[in-house]
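S.,

Sequence below, as promised.
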Amino acid sequence: MHGVAELLTVAEVARRLRQSEDTIRRKISLGEIEALRLGEHGPLRVPETALAAHLQPASSAARPDPTLRAGLRAALDVETEEER
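The prediction came back faster than expected:
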């Protein structure tokens, strides 16, 4: 199948991620994992490319800013010294 993403069942995704099918369905409903419904009332399918995207590490934009963390630490240290 060249050029066509394989479509995985919810059960297949659950096995690969070692999570329950309910958890996978919840992630799909929250938009965390992209899925397709085959037909109006058909089964859900997850493109393998969507699963790969879900498994990618978070972008640096989603990671906490180290300067913010340092500022928070400094604020907590000042507060602790004032309490002494």
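Confidence is low (pLDDT under 50) at residues 79-84.

Coffee later?
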